[in-house]
Amino acid sequence: MLADDAACNSRNKFPGCVYPNAGRGIDLYGDNIEVDYRGYEVTVENFIRVLTGRMEPSVPRSKRLLTDDRSNIFVYMTGHGGNEFLKFQDNEEISAFDIADAFEQMWQKKRYNEIFFMIDTCQANTMYSKFYSPNILATGSSRIHENSYSYENDNDIGVAVIDSYTHHVLQFMEGINKTSQASMQELFDTYDFDKIHSHPGVRSDLFGRDLKQALITDFFGGVSRAEVTPPLFHVESPQSPPQFDDPHQEVPAEPVHPPDQTTPELLTPYELFVSQKQLSDRDARRSLRAWLAIGILVGLVGFVGSKRTR
């Protein structure tokens, strides 16, 4: 959800790109970025609906949060805010109570396993102070009555392109790959006031695991875990084909039988003759009955015809 289309803004000297620093080493708006809600679609109502799953039937799957009770969800929010609120489009606000109640609905509806909530705004730590649902780990960029500052300005664009807290987290994440064993505790241990210029906070009392055991990749695109379930049907493995010493020897073809039918037994010559004779006798009786019926019919027709001539 992007409230401002910075990549295509007329003030952006690099159309279609968003760089977090003047060096432009990383394009945050790369080919793998999908924006489902942009501009005036980014509202408090739509944000709550996405979290809770209360969507109209006409909303496509690409705009839904298709999660269940085994899903780990990462929620990142940034913008202008204050004590227990964050602005949307500069004309409405979402409060700490709104997010807390939305997470509780998600828990009641079994829409998540764990949530990692991160927010970068002024007085950010107040936004997770009202959480009361289980299995939520939260972190913010600044204490109450404390501002969150930008990192640096890009002279080619004329505005600040990233905040200090987000820049610090991004630098840490650039050293993480999908098989990394780095923990959440290692991330939080890197928080430094001299680098961020504010006091980031962490709330883990609702989280059910030790932060040293919670991996970064549990929430940031790690390797998928496959669950092996018992088979629903028992399938017998096919028998291996017979082996032949001579590579040019032909493999004998097995007879093909219709499904759900037993293989017919081979008949001796006498049994075959008797079977054929029985079939012949049966056919002869059927033919005799047919000729008798025709003869009777002809006789009746002739008898009726003779009566009429008299």
Textual characterization of the structure:
The chain has 310 residues and is of the alpha/beta class. The chain has a domain at 6-218: Rossmann fold (3-Layer(aba) Sandwich), CATH 3.40.50.1460. It has 6 helices and 9 strands, in the order H-E-E-E-E-H-E-E-E-E-H-H-H-E-H. It has helices at 44-52, 96-108, 164-173, 184-189, 193-196, 269-309, and strands spanning 72-78, 81-82, 85-88, 92-95, 114-120, 136-140, 150-154, 159-163, 201-203. The strands form 3 sheets. The chain has a 4-stranded mixed β-sheet, with no helix packed on it. It has a 3-stranded antiparallel β-sheet with strand order 2-3-4. The longest helix is centred in the last third of the chain and has 41 residues, at 269-309. It is elongated and about 130 Å long. The N and C termini lie far apart (106 Å). The mean pLDDT is 83.
CATH architecture field of the domain at 6-218: 3-Layer(aba) Sandwich
Global outline: elongated
CATH class of the domain at 6-218: Alpha Beta
Which structural class do the helices and strands define? Answer: alpha/beta
Overall mean confidence score, pLDDT: 83
Radius of gyration over all CA atoms, rounded: 39 Å
Q: Report the biggest beta sheet as strand number plus sense, adding barrel if it closes.
A: 4 strands, mixed
Low-confidence stretches: none
Give the fraction of residues assigned to helices.
Answer: 25-40%
* Distance linking N and C termini: 106 Å
> How many strand elements?
9
Strands of the widest sheet, in order across it, are 1-5-6-9
CATH fold assignment of the domain at 6-218: Rossmann fold
Give the amount of beta strand, in percent.
Answer: 5-15%
- Please trace the helix and strand order, writing H or E for each element: HEEEEHEEEEHHHEH
Number of helices: 6
